[in-house]
C-alpha cells in the first residue's frame, strides 16, 4: 500500500474540516449580506419617496409616484448576484424571495426567473415558507395559471406543514379580500383556512386563520350577534341576550 506523506494528509484533513465549517459560516454571512442589502434598499427607497414629496410640495401639479421603480431596478442585480453566490443552498432563498416580489410589473423576467429557481432548486426546503406565502398574491405579476401551477407543485412536493400552511392562508386571504366572491370560491377559501390550522396549529398563521373563520362564519351581515357577557357601569353582570327584542347600541372603545 502506498504511503501518503503526512503533509498531504494534513492538507486533505484541513480541507475537509474547512468544508464542514463553511455551512454555518456561509449561512451567517448570507444572512448578514441579505440584511445589509435590505437595509440599503429600504434607505434608498425612503430617500426616493422623500424626494417625491419634496418635489410635489414645490410643484403641486407633479404626480406623486409611491413605487420606487428606479430603486427596485437598481437593486435587482445586487440581489440576483447574491442569489447566484449561494446557488443551490437555502441561503439563496431570501434573495430569491426578494426578487420574486420586488418588481410587480406583469410578466417581468426577474419574478419569473426567481420563481423558476425556487421551484427547481428549493421546492422541498423547510425555508420556503416566506416565498410560498408570497406566490398566491402574484396573479397579476406572473399570471393566474403560473401561480396555480407553482402552488400545486409546492403542495405536492414540499413535506413541511408550515410551508403548506402559509400557502393555504395566503391563497384564502387573496380570495376573501376580493370584491366579488362566488359561494364556491368562498367555501374553498374557508377550507384552505382549516387546512392551515390543521397543518400548523401552533403558528401565528393558524391563529389568524381561526380569526378569519370566526369572522366569516359568525360576524356576517344577517347573522345572529354572538352573545356578549360583561358588567355594566354599576358592576352588575349582564348578557347581550338579556335584551333580545330591544334596540341596542353597542359602543366599543379602548384606552391605550
List the helices and strands and how they pair.
Layout: H1 6-58, H2 69-85, H3 93-102, H4 109-121, H5 129-134, H6 139-142, H7 144-157, H8 161-177, H9 183-199, H10 204-218, E1 229-231, E2 237-239
Antiparallel strand pairs: 1-2
Helix pairs in contact: 1-2, 2-3, 3-4, 8-9, 9-10
Tell me about this structure:
The structure is a single chain. With 256 residues, the chain is mostly helical. The chain has a domain at 26-123. 65% of the residues lie in helices and 2% in strands. It has ten helices and two strands. It has helices at 6-58, 69-85, 93-102, 109-121, 129-134, 139-142, 144-157, 161-177, 183-199, 204-218, and strands spanning 229-231, 237-239. Helix 1 packs antiparallel against helix 2 (69-85) and helix 8 (161-177) packs antiparallel against helix 9. The model is unreliable at 1-22 (pLDDT under 50).
Amino acid at each position: 500500500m502506498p504511503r501518503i506523506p503526512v503533509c498531504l494528509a494534513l492538507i486533505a484533513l484541513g480541507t475537509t474540516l474547512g468544508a464542514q465549517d463553511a455551512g454555518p459560516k456561509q449561512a451567517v454571512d448570507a444572512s448578514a449580506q441579505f440584511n445589509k442589502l435590505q437595509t440599503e434598499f429600504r434607505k434608498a427607497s425612503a430617500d426616493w419617496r422623500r424626494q417625491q414629496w419634496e418635489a410635489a410640495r414645490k410643484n403641486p401639479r407633479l404626480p406623486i409616484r409611491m413605487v420606487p421603480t428606479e430603486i427596485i431596478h437598481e437593486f435587482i442585480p445586487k440581489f440576483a448576484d447574491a442569489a447566484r453566490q449561494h446557488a443551490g443552498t437555502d441561503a439563496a432563498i431570501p434573495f430569491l424571495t426578494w426578487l420574486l416580489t420586488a418588481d410587480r410589473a406583469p410578466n417581468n423576467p426577474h419574478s419569473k426567473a426567481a420563481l423558476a429557481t425556487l421551484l427547481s432548486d428549493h421546492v422541498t426546503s423547510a425555508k420556503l415558507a416566506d416565498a410560498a406565502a408570497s406566490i398566491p398574491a402574484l396573479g397579476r405579476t406572473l399570471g393566474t395559471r403560473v401561480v396555480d401551477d407553482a402552488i400545486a407543485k409546492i403542495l405536492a412536493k414540499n413535506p413541511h406543514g408550515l410551508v403548506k400552511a402559509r400557502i393555504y392562508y395566503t391563497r384564502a386571504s387573496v380570495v376573501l379580500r376580493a370584491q366579488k366572491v362566488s359561494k364556491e370560491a368562498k367555501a374553498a377559501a374557508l377550507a384552505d383556512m382549516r387546512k392551515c390550522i390543521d397543518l400548523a396549529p401552533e403558528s401565528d398563521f393558524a391563529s389568524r386563520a381561526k380569526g378569519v373563520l370566526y369572522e366569516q362564519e359568525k360576524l356576517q351581515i344577517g347573522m345572529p350577534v354572538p352573545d356578549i357577557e360583561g358588567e355594566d357601569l354599576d358592576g352588575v353582570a349582564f348578557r347581550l341576550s338579556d335584551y333580545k327584542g330591544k334596540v341596542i347600541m353597542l359602543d366599543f372603545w379602548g384606552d391605550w
